[in-house]
Design the sequence.
């Protein structure tokens, strides 16, 4: 069994969860004043995810830090905001990444092997001025590196031997961050529809207000004035908010979103800035792709988003609403929605 401090550092570990289970705390127990510090810290973790995109590591009180993690997960679940689910999972994963960078190679390897079943070996290879400390089986490498866009993560650009990819210490912890992000995302989704005691619900309500007050800044509300996020069809809003949260997206979703933004009138530079939030952002490569879709490179063809039927076929249709049933293309939805929004603004009486 791991120590309480180790569990507080990495509360997503299976042994950390067992430590929490041994305390056998109920929701009513947590609502008692004696656990106010735990609730404060849990609320703080969620606030940090909303406002900063990264949770801190407060290890002075190990038990409070440990217990606050499942409570924060519960708060996120109760909020029911899919965008915030992803932002919170990434926030906690970045916290773990920074802690792992201070661990020994042996500790990193132990977590990867025992917790995530990686086929990982410790090595010491100095090649081309780089010190490689790990080699990871290519299946485990691909399972996590596929989320990254930087060329260095492509398998063809890696040093391999006998099916194992050579990795530096920071590269290994970066891959672990992605593994941890997915695990925390899974933990969040387990308890939908949970009824909370009033003291806990009051904190959820306060966090909800914090999120709403900052929604525009963290979901890209500073778009050019001629592009209205409020008019985005659900599929494009899902893709857009996922981009801002660092969620991994497939090729079709990225292409659909980029071509939609271009045709909605967003400036190329603004679209490039949006992709800064993508993990391992490569500005030059991303700009080339966006300009190609915009018809500024290659065959000079300006692409439009795929039709709704194509998006459904590729699993990119999310949360369709009543207007979706009346249109066949994302841009048609956007035009209708914008007209409706502007019509309501014109009908509003002057103050």
Sequence:
């Amino acid at each position: 069994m791991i120590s309480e401090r180790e569990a507080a550092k990495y509360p997503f570990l299976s042994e950390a969860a067992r430590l929490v289970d041994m305390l056998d705390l109920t929701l009513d127990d947590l609502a008692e004043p004696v656990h106010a510090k735990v609730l404060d810290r849990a609320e703080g973790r969620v606030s940090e995810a909303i406002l900063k995109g990264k949770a801190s590591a407060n290890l002075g009180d190990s038990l409070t830090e440990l217990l606050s993690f499942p409570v924060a997960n519960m708060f996120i679940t109760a909020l029911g905001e899919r965008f915030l689910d992803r932002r919170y999972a990434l926030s906690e994963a970045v916290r773990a990444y920074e802690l792992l960078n201070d661990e020994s190679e042996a500790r990193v390897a132990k977590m990867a092997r025992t917790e995530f079943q990686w086929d990982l070996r410790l090595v010491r290879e100095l090649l081309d001025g780089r010190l490689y400390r790990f080699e990871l089986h290519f299946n485990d490498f691909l399972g996590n590196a596929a989320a990254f866009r930087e060329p260095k993560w492509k398998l063809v650009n890696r040093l391999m031997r006998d099916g194992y990819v050579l990795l530096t210490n920071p590269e290994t912890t970066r891959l672990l961050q992605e593994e941890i992000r997915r695990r925390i995302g899974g933990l969040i989704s387990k308890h939908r529809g949970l009824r909370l005691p009033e003291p806990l619900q009051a904190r959820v309500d306060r966090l909800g207000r914090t999120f709403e007050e900052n929604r525009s800044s963290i979901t890209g509300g500073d778009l050019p004035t001629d592009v209205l996020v409020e008019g985005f069809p659900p599929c494009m809003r899902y893709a857009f908010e996922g981009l801002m949260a660092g969620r991994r997206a497939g090729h079709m979703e990225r292409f659909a979103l980029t071509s939609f933004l271009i045709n909605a009138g967003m400036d190329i530079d603004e679209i490039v800035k949006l992709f800064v939030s993508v993990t391992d952002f490569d500005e030059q490569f991303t700009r080339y792709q966006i300009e190609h879709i915009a018809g500024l490179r290659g065959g000079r063809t300006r692409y439009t988003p795929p039709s709704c039927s194509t998006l459904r076929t590729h699993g990119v249709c999310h949360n369709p609403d009543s207007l979706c049933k009346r249109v066949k293309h994302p841009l048609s939805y956007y035009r209708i929605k914008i007209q409706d929004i502007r019509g309501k603004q014109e009908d509003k009486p002057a103050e």
